[in-house]
Amino acid sequence: MSCKDKKEVALLPQDKTPKNILFIAVDDLRPELNFYGANHIQSPNLDKLANESLVFNRAYCNVPVCGASRASLLKGVRPTRHRFINYKTRADVDAPDAISLPNLLQQNGYTTISNGKIYHYNNDDSLAWHNNWFPKGNIRDYQLEKNIVENQGAGQANGGAVSHEMAQVHDTAYFDGKIAQKGIADLRELKQKKEPFFLALGFMKPHLPFNAPKKYWDLYDRNSIELPESYIQPKSTPRKAFHNFGELRQYNNVPKKGDITDALAKELIHGYYACVSYVDAQIGLVLDELKRLELEDDTIVILWGDHGWNLGDHKLWCKHVTFETALRTPLIIKVPGKTKGQKTDAITEYIDIYPTLTELVGIKAPETVEGKSFVPILNGKTSKKDWAVSKFKDAVTLIKGDLFYTEWTKDDGVAYERMLFDHKTDPLELENLAEKPDYQETVKVLAKELRENWGKDFLAKN
Predict the structure, then answer these.
(1) CB 8: neighbour CB atoms within 10 A?
(2) Could you tell me which residue ranges the Sulfatase N-terminal domain spans (predicted)?
(3) Do the Cβ atoms of 138 and 148 come closer than 8 Å?
């Protein structure tokens, strides 16, 4: 069925009114948060939400790049060698016959609203939304005129990777403050309607550049920031596993090649922390309003980051690799009457989000959806699924228990490079085991399971 086909999809029988869904996406958010065992980023609102939610300790995106990850998640369809490739991915081009989650909900009586960055392109999957809004301004969200001029429009990023641009700028000067206020205004309107709603808020930070109001920078002491323990690129790891972090090098305070200085590395880490605290404050405003309007008891809240992010890990920055730092993501879901701060180690993929939400609100997921609902986990049961598959370009990774196995494959599926880490003994992924004699039988088994689980269309050209 085409996403433009308005044929109704039947509701499943249910005993209660469909619940609202507040769908919060955060760009480039790592699971480096207090409820994941870290204790150095101040994010009190996310911490509070986690204490009311089910927290997934082992959630993984299916592709570590924004446009492709979002399209895959919202369509419920796996990436392949030729589908959902990079940040320019459009869901309505790559998977035109798969009904997106918001489109399905709209067809079943939901008011659907997209604010901020949900898809990479604001006009992607346009028929799925009753209202689709993005704040005005230069895409890098600079406030200083010098930076705006140096930015040269949406395609350039010369203004600098890190900057607290003004001494005292209000939170609403930046996109995320505007997105929060638009979300709050929408909640007030939706409160007056009888229809259930799917309100999607796509927050931009902590995406580069790390510009946030000065008060959030002031929460952290640069002198106490340390480089990650994994600030190394071991010789046993294939060189193809690393990249030149070109996304970061667009900025005029970052050298075009080679390692960056330790001072700049710490400034980037500082800026990342500040941006997480900034977006945390904006999300807190929305959640406070949800409570004030007495909507929270009838609203599912799900929060996710579109992929992980390297913050100096393996001397890398940004995403675009298949190390765990780029694949593992924050994922928390608050379901009224079900969640209260539980945590699960069940391996979960982002394509599992779509069928979970539809099951929770009593709508049958389309046959195109490839994920597996994690509602049984919400009900306290043990998940039978112990694997996930992620890919980026030629690299495709099977996550199976504590093992992270990656193959770089050709169009015919034949591997030309391998990488294997055992997180029981090597959680930082510093020793590639794939070529060691003692692991050849393990590699053979994992290679077979990878092909069994990467999806029936993985090698298809269309």
Answers:
(1) 8
(2) 19-363
(3) yes
Please give the structure tokens belonging to residue 331.
Answer: 């994922």
pLDDT at 167: 63
Q: In the annotation, is 423 catalytic?
A: no
pLDDT tens-place string over residues 136-150: 989 999 988 888 888
Any idea where the domains of the chain sit in the sequence? Answer: 20-389
Is residue 432 within 8 A of residue 236, CB to CB? The reply is yes
Residues of the chain with pLDDT under 70: 1-18, 154, 166-168, 462
Written as one string, the DSSP assignment of 305-349 is ESS--EESGGG-EES-S-SHHHHEE-EEEE-TTT-SSEEE---EE
Asked if 327 and 61 count as a contact pair (C-beta separation under 8 A), the reply is yes
- Residue 183 · residue 200 · CB < 8 Å: no
CA distances for 461 relative to 94, 320, 458, angstroms: 11, 22, 9
Instruction: Give the active site residue among 61, 66, 275, 318.
Output: 66
Is 318 designated active site?
no
User: How far is 288 from 281, CA to CA, in rounded Å?
Assistant: 11
For tokens 């002031």, the residue is 218
Q: What is the dihedral of CA 316, 318, 322, 326, to 10 degrees?
A: 110
Class of domain 20-389: alpha beta
Q: CA-CA distance, 100 to 104, in Å (whole number)? A: 6
Structure tokens belonging to residue 403: 């093992």
Nearest CA-CA partner of 103 in 7, 32, 184, 28 = 7
Angle at which helices 353-361 and 66-75 pack, to 10 degrees?
A: 40
Determine contact, residues 102/201, Cβ cutoff 8 Å.
no
CA 15 to chain centre: 33
Distances in whole angstroms, Cα of residue 325 to Cα of each of 83, 314, 315, 401: 23, 9, 12, 16
Q: Give the model confidence (pLDDT) of 226-252 as tens digits.
A: 999 999 999 999 999 999 999 999 999
Question: 67-87 b/e with 16+ CB inside 10 Å = b?
Answer: bbbbbbbbbbbbbbbebbbee
| pLDDT at residue 299, as a whole number | 97
Query: Which of the following is catalytic: 3, 40, 82, 120?
Result: 120
pTM, entire model:
0.94
